[in-house]
Every structure is written in structure tokens, then in C-alpha cells.
Amino acid sequence: MTSRRDFFRNAGIAGAAVASAAVSRVALAAIPEPVVETTADTRGPLVPPTGRPYNPVVTLNGWTLPWRMKDGVKEFHLVAEPVVREMAPGFKVHLWGYNGQSPGPTIEVVEGDRVRIYVTNRLPERTSVHWHGQRLPNGMDGVSGLTQPAIPPGKTFVYEFVARRPGTFMYHPHADEMTQMAMGMMGFWVTHPKGRHPLIAPVDRDYVFLLNAYDIDPGSYTPKTMTMLDFNLWSWNSRVFPGIAPLVARQGDRVRIRIGNLTMTNHPIHIHGHEFEVTGTDGGPVPKGARWPEVTTDIAVGQMRQIEFIADEEGDWAMHCHKSHHTMNAMGHDVPNLIGVDQRGLAERIADLVPGYMAMGSQGMADMADMKMPLPENTLPMMTGDGPFGPLEMGGMFSVLKVRRGQKADDYTDPGWFDHPPGTVASEVDGSRVPPASSPAADSPTSSGEAHGSDAEGVEVHVRRPGVGGHGQH
Ligand SMILES: [Cu+2]
Q: Is the peptide bond before 355 cis (omega within 30 degrees of 0)?
């Protein structure tokens, strides 16, 4: 039975609870409503509705965080929380992130803006936010234990500083960093120049994304956070091919792509069909005399690079990490090299024991992309994705730069596959296009020339060793 004393004690507790809820409701009323995104769609550029104007960026499979202006201060509200991220169609994983997604939303401000960022911690452990690359008061740097107490679960902290220099930045926790970054906690930050800047060119398209990596066993939903090197999902903005949005441009557009690396290894990012220059790093714009053309740039751990080029070649141009294992997905690694191994007899014997067993890899791994083998639930085949000419045999850090003459200036929608002009696609040699008998190869004693002619059925290619015949080198 409840005693009178218990009653008063309980009433006291209840009263205290009401009072604290009322206080926090008042405090929360001063904080901007958190905005939450639940899909992995690429949102179009957020044209600034308030504050000073700028040309907004587009976050691949992501979005920009809206803000409110309060007494001349740009106020944002980040919520650190568990999220569900679709890494590719049909493949959902349980990550930690901000405002409903991993990575968190991109923050865009203008050089000189005073910025106030509320951070609410809905994680089961403490966290903090480090504003990677920014000039700011030391106590706003977000290193828990060193520059601030960590944000306990359930609490909201506030960061405030002036965005002093324009450039490409990111944010991530500096508390139990290994776990929290392996779980997907990170986001992009762009500070636009306040006017014309001698080293920052206006561009027609400005894309941003982060390089991240996960180790998620096929059939499971949560990353293994203790993995140091052997990740099995190499992602852009927590998406893997064929889940990564294409980068779309109108022919002739000046395109900037800003990339930050928060994985545990470097990524040589490569674009086909165009040369680009690195016009900025995490330290700021690169002086013009220090830029050079290239088609691949290595982005080391913790670095940011912004690359720029004129998208003047129409087509569907591959853009990917050049580490070939980073353009592969989870299912199918840790398989021995079976090229040249005749598995037929063995496969039959195993199939007696394991119904449905299939042998793979005797001629390379392309079988993987063709066979549509049943997979454990919630994973992706190692090589996947279909293009207009068949399987792409890709995964991971791969996307397509789609350059089109007819793309509208503000249109970021996928224009579909490129319609190649007639006669511009590599194709099988037919008899009518075999080199004539008078070609230099015909001089070789090992090339009789008997296979040449219009009969495609009879084409035979002879192989000549260097230094044997043909050039008088005996
Ligand atoms: Cu890579």
C-alpha cells in the first residue's frame, strides 16, 4: 500500500519531472526544428532562401541541411542518431548518421557567415562534432576531452563560429571515432566565397561526396566496426554501385567535384574522357601555377580534393576509384584464383552433396555478373549492374559522368544511356573490315596472308614474336 510519505515522495519526483520537461521544452523552443531526410535520393541544389547568395552544390545521394536566420546568425540543427541507409536498391543497412541519413546533410555557408550549430545526441553513447579543416576558436573544434566535454546521450550542445575561409570541409565525431566513423557518422561542409575570388572559378555544376567504407557480412545489417583494412563495401556517401547516382552535366559545363576521404586507405579517383585539375584541397584553393592536368588523382585518408574540368565530350564516362577491388561489392571476396582450373568433375561431385552448387572462376570472375546466383538476403553480388551493352561487372566506388548536349542548365535528372552516333561504338570485326593483304603484317613469314579476304568465317589471326621476321632483325 502506498504510504503518505511515499505519496509525497512520488509527487515530488513527478513534480520535478514536469519541471525539467518544461525547462527543456522552453530551451528546445529556442532551437531550430531538426529537418530529417528518409531517402537516399539526390536532392537538387538548395538555392539559399535567406542569407547571402551563392551557387549551391549537389550532394550525390544526399541533401543540404536547411537553416534559419536568427539575428544575423545562420542556425542549423544536427541530430546524431541511428539510421537506416539503403546502400543500393534492396540492400539496407543499419548505420549511425545525422538527421535520418548517413552521411549527414551537407552544410553550406558563405565566407564570413556567423554559424550556430545545435547538435543533439540520440546515440546510445557520447559524441562530439569536429569541423574538419575550419579556422575557429579552439573550444569549438569538437575534440571530446581536449576542447570540450563529450555530448552525453540525450543532450544538445551548441557550436558557434565564423566561417572564416572559403573552401571544402567535412564534419565527423571526435569521440569514439573509430566506432562512430565505421558506423557512418560524417558529413560535408562547403564555405562559398563571399564574392569573386581569384582562385575559385564560378562553375555550372558543383558536386560533393565523401568516400567511406564498411565491413558488412552478407546477410547482416550492421558494420563490423573493428575492421581495420579488409572492408567489403567501398562507398560514396554510403552508397555502392549500382546505387550511386550519375553525375550529370550539359556539354560545355564547367564542373567541379569535391571529394573527401574518411576511409582507412587512399583512393585514386579516375575520370574517363576528360582531363581535370585539382583546384583546391582541404587547405584552400590551389595557386594557378601549381595546377596540372591529370585524369586520376589520389585522395589520401583525411584529405579533400576539388577537381575541375570542362565537360566537353558527350557520352557516358566511367568515374571510379582505380583500385580495382574498390569497384567490387561484398559477396564473392576471399575466393581462390581458379583461372585455368577445370572444375567440371569436382562441381558434379560437390553438387551431389550440395544441391545447386555451381563452380565459378575457371575463366575469370565475369561469370559472377552473368549468373544471377541466389544470394543471402541483404547483400550485393561482387560485380553487378547492367549497362546498355550488358553487365558492367562493377560495384563499390563506381559511377558515370553523363555529358549531354541537350541537358538543361538546372536539370540533374538521369538522362538515361548515351545514344552513340552511328559508327562510334567498338564492335566485332567482320570480314569486310579485315585488314587488306597488303598490310605490313602480311610481310611476316609467319603470316601467310591466306586468312585475309572477305570470308569472315575463315579469319585466323597469326601471332608473330618480336624480333622474328618482318623487320629484318635476325
Ligand atoms: Cu579506392
A: no
